[in-house]
Amino acid sequence: GYDLWLRYRPLPAAQVAAYAPEMQHLRMDVDSPARAAARDELSNALQGLLGSAPQPVDRMRPGTLVIGTPASSPWLAGLAADVDGLGDEGFLVRRMRVDGQPAIVIAANADAGLVYGTFRFLRLLQTGQSLEALDLREAPRVKLRVLNHWDDLNRYVERGYSGQSIWDWHRLPGWLDPRYTDYARANASIGINGTVLNNVNANARILTPQYLEKVRALAGVMRPYGIRVYLSARFSAPMEIGGLATSDPLDPEVQRWWKAKADEIYGLIPDFGGFLVKANSEGQPGPQDYGRSHADGANLLADALAPHGGVVMWRAFVYSEEEPDDRHKQAYNEFVPHDGEFRDNVLVQVKNGAIDFQPREPFHPLFGAMPRTPLVMEFQITKEYLGFSTHLAYKGTLYEEVLRADTRVDGEGSTVANVVDGSLHGHVLSGMAGVANIGSDRSWSGSHFDQANWYAYGRLAWDPDLSSRAIAEEWVRMTFSNDPALVAPVVGMMMDSREAVVDYTGALGLHHLMGRGHHYGPGPWVDGGPRADWTSVYYHRATGEGIGFDRTTGGSDAVSQYAPELAAVFDDPTRVPEEFLLWFHHVPWDHPMRSGQPLWDELVMRYDRGVDTVRRMRATWDALQEHVDGERHRQVAAFLAIQENEAQWWRDASIAYFQTFARRPLPAGHAPPP
Ligand code: GCU
Question: Catalytic: 384?
Answer without folding.
Answer: yes
